[in-house]
Design goal:
Layout (H helix, E strand, L loop, with lengths): L1 H6 L6 H11 L7 H8 L5 H87 L6 H29 L7 E4 H15 L11 E5 L4 E4 L1 H17 L10 E8 L2 E7 L7 H6 L15 H12 L3 E7 L3 E9 L8
Parallel strand pairs: 2-4
Antiparallel strand pairs: 1-3, 4-5, 5-7, 6-7
Helix pairs in contact: 2-3, 2-4, 3-4, 4-5, 6-7, 7-9
């Protein structure tokens, strides 16, 4: 069958040659490689377009297959290590649990994307209707285009958040001066948010001893602390920022404790309970990934823990506890 399809690439009718290109787009069979190269220089423009599209799709499939194999190899290596430590039953239990977590994540992501796509589709439909309406003004069309742009940007932010949350970076741990790490985080927040001292924007005070150190993955810890600080800054939205955000750190035996306290809007018990849940957000343009990512970095990557305490109308305290030294596994 493949041989007969390849032979049809020389057919006198351009419709047949284009159909061969369409077939080639549905398979990675190597016999179609020279066929597509030939059809890409065909005299008919539609045939050339079909051949180019087929070649692009085949390349995407090939790349996806390679990434899929690499992903599968990584998972199997992890499961092999678990089996060595805990036996076949441990491997099977971890595999079942990971599949359930992946399925839950996929369902939640699907529902979240659908929620974002529905108003985006509605905006596109309104824009099309207004374009066909002679009475629609330029301002009406611009407003609808802006809404589409904003909703597309929100969808992109959710997908970017998902990518950050599911990333498995190579972690490099080193003993870092904790005050330097926190100062770097505060500087980043000040660069990306309203400047302290501006109307409604809180100041950020840092009270950390220069002698405190901890073995951390600096870039990842900065990302986690930045997410917490951004949440603290945004808690002042619509409020008079009379009291500053205060960041403190102390060493307690083999652990360091970092506390980020704000005097923002605070949360009631229900909102506080939902805060660590993926996609849960009370912000109009929130993605629901900031706090879960901070928890992942602090707890899964740094063997620490993150606790939140909040009172509606009074503010929130995020407490991060980290080991001074990374736990060493058995040799």
């Amino acid at each position: 069958m493949i041989a007969r399809l390849v032979a049809l690439a020389d057919h006198t009718k351009w419709e047949v040659r284009r159909a061969v290109a369409h077939v080639a787009a549905q398979t990675l069979h190597g016999a179609f490689e020279p066929v597509l190269a030939k059809l890409a220089t065909d005299d008919n423009n539609r045939v050339r377009q079909a051949a180019d599209a087929a070649a692009l799709r085949r390349r995407d499939w090939a790349n996806a297959s390679v990434l899929g194999r690499q992903h599968e190899d990584h998972i199997n290596a992890t499961l092999d290590d678990i089996e060595v430590r805990f036996g076949p039953r441990g491997r099977a239990a971890v595999k079942r649990a990971s599949e359930q977590i992946a399925n839950t994540f996929a369902r939640e992501l699907y529902h979240e994307v659908i929620k974002l796509l529905s108003p985006l589709a509605a905006s596109a439909d309104r824009l099309r209707t207004r374009l066909a309406d002679d009475s629609a003004t330029r301002a009406d069309l611009v407003d609808e285009a802006i809404r589409i742009e904003q909703r597309a940007a929100h969808l992109r932010a959710v997908l970017d958040g998902m990518r950050s949350y599911t990333a498995q970076p190579k972690l490099g741990f080193a003993t870092e001066n904790l005050k330097d790490v926190i100062d770097e985080t505060v500087a980043l927040v000040r660069d990306h948010r309203r400047a302290p001292g501006a109307p409604g924007a809180p100041d950020i005070e840092v009270h950390v001893d220069d002698a405190i150190t901890a073995e951390v993955s600096r870039g990842r810890l900065v990302q986690a602390l930045m997410n917490l600080l951004v949440n603290a800054v945004e808690a002042y939205a619509g409020l008079e920022a009379a009291l500053p955000i205060v960041v403190r750190a102390v060493q307690e035996d083999t652990r360091v404790v970092i506390a980020i306290a704000d005097a923002g809007c605070g949360m009631n018990e229900e909102v506080l309970a939902d805060a660590p849940v993926l996609f849960a957000t009370s912000k109009p343009n929130g993605t629901g990934f900031g706090l879960p990512l901070a928890i992942k970095i602090i707890e899964s990557e740094h063997d620490g823990w993150l606790r939140l305490a909040s009172t509606k109308g009074r503010g929130t305290v995020a407490t991060v506890t980290l080991p001074v030294r990374r736990p060493r596994g058995p040799t």
